Amino acid sequence: MNQNTNDIIINHYNKVAEKFGLSPSSTIGDQYIRQAEITFFIESLKAKVSNQGEGQSLFDIGCGNGHLLSVIRQEFPKLKLFGLDFHPELTKLAQSRKLENCEIIQGDMRKELSMFGHHDFVITERSVINLLNKEEQFCALSNISMIIKPQGYYFFSESFEEPRANINRARKQMYLAEDINPSKHNLWLREEDLLTLNENNMHEIDGPLAKNHLSTHFYITRILHSIALPKGGVAEEFQNFFNTALPAAVGNYSPILFRSFEKSK
Ligand SMILES: C[S@@+](CC[C@H](N)C(=O)[O-])C[C@H]1O[C@@H](n2cnc3c(N)ncnc32)[C@H](O)[C@@H]1O
Questions:
Q1: Number of folded domains in the chain?
Q2: Is the pTM of this model over 0.85?
Q3: In terms of DSSP H, where are the helices of 2-30?
Q4: Is the CB of 87 under 6 A from ligand 1?
């Protein structure tokens, strides 16, 4: 594990933990994206949880301040919950929620995870992309696969490289000078990286939302907005209008994709 890359992650989330505390805006300012992610995870679980979650467990890897776990707790009171995060302050914030029937652990997804048990559901929300080299991402994806029970599920919201070319081509056509790039605390996945999941008996299934659900939103906020907003203008009403007026999931402009995998028997 490279100390420099660990420092990038720790320094970034030190600021996040201090500025946002328990807020839903922690780790993502855009609340349309946050809400869409919550809908994806909750609807995915509603489709697969049995007996209201009695006797089943879910592990949120990279749980941050525990906001998503708190929403899941409300929706599924009987599901046993676990959360793991690398960052000490974010872990403490998640623990401070004192969610019922929920264990929050400080740990590292690059290390073996089986001591935290095997689970019916594992979820990650933009956390595998915090691993800043491919070997570490493969290692984490393989560790995740290994702690999913047969016929269990891995639901994730992570960013991918492939849609970036589309959004940057569309921006160039509108003479928008700057490309969209991953921030320095992220390394976006590539489709081929998901072979690690296939090699570990995981196969992709359809989810309740299209995997490109956020595509329209990205086109509105990264292209339309950029060409239409006068200097000093406020984007809020503009974005709300087009998010409501246009159907979701048009094109492939969103780096953030919602994906669902099931483990074979
Ligand atoms: C984008 S945040 C998502 C957090 C939470 N799901 C949310 O949306 O607020 C990514 C999280 O992954 C955690 N993380 C980064 N590297 C990790 C690692 N190696 N093991 C476990 N968690 C890690 C970070 O500390 C951060 O809290």
A1: 1
A2: yes
A3: 3-20
A4: yes
